[in-house]
Amino acid sequence: MTNPTLAAGPVERHLRARRDTGRGLLMPYVTGGITPGWTDYLRAFVAAGADAIEVGLPFSDPTLDGVTIQQAGDTALARGASTRRILADLAGIPEPGVPLVASTYYNLVLHDGSEAFCAALRRAGVSGLIVPDLPLHEADELAEAAAAAGIELALLASPSTPEPRLAEISRRSRGFVYAVSLMGTTGERAALAASAAELTARIRRGTDRPVLLGFGISTPDQAREAGRHADGVVVGAAVMRRVLDGAGPDDLRAFLATLRRALDQECDAPR
């Protein structure tokens, strides 16, 4: 097994410290610019017990996103959201107390160039990055620029990832490894995919870096089940559907608190 602590940055150190107390990790997602006061959601997430927050930088052609996240991105873009405006919003708020992890598509990185893009993230107080459409064999330039700027580039692994590639993803990922629970797009689902348990077990054989499970986790029961396999969960579509339906920060705090309790109950359950 690798020893990633030697290269651990603030995202990984934060998640490791919480995980090592027996806590299940919760990382909710919000699309930047989705509402006029969208940064209020960040405070609500922290109040609900989030351990990190994923902030989506909307892109016009989100190939891996399902209907809900696509609608959220379209809504934000229609409001005039852009990478620069979202990062300016983040730079203008107090530090939330948990790591902020940006997620976006590689086209937006290329638009500014890897070095400038990562430097802008850092100035805004972002310390992690997810780029789901970046092929592993083309990740060197961005990985180097991210490391130089103090940004941890987290890589994704899916149920179809072959073992040699999975080992490389586990070794090169920073902050955490993002385990994609199923082959498909983001979105709420009735049950946790059966492939989730096997994937997380495969990842954990190659690294002790935190493993967060995403794609389709929508309910406390699903969060509790995911907590049996992964170190934590990423919750996006279930959050953004509520925002699109008009939910405010207090509503989201109440919803995420139910997931927080479910993760805590799973961690407290006898083994």
Automatic annotation (TrEMBL):
Reactions mediated catalytically: (1S,2R)-1-C-(indol-3-yl)glycerol 3-phosphate + L-serine = D-glyceraldehyde 3-phosphate + L-tryptophan + H2O
Keyword terms of this UniProt record: Amino-acid biosynthesis, Aromatic amino acid biosynthesis, Lyase, Tryptophan biosynthesis
Top-rank taxon, per record: Bacteria
Active site: 54, 65
The enzyme's E.C. designation: 4.2.1.20
Broadest EC class assigned to this enzyme: lyase
InterPro entries per the UniProt record, alphabetical: Aldolase_TIM (IPR013785), RibuloseP-bd_barrel (IPR011060), Trp_synthase_suA (IPR002028)
Cross-referenced Pfam families: Trp_syntA
Signal peptide boundaries: none
Pathway the protein contributes to: Amino-acid biosynthesis; L-tryptophan biosynthesis; L-tryptophan from chorismate: step 5/5
GO molecular function: tryptophan synthase activity
GO cellular component: cytosol
Subunit structure and binding partners: Tetramer of two alpha and two beta chains.
HAMAP family listed in its UniProt record: Trp_synth_alpha
Protein family per UniProt: Belongs to the TrpA family.
Job description of the protein: The alpha subunit is responsible for the aldol cleavage of indoleglycerol phosphate to indole and glyceraldehyde 3-phosphate.
Protein name according to UniProt: Tryptophan synthase alpha chain
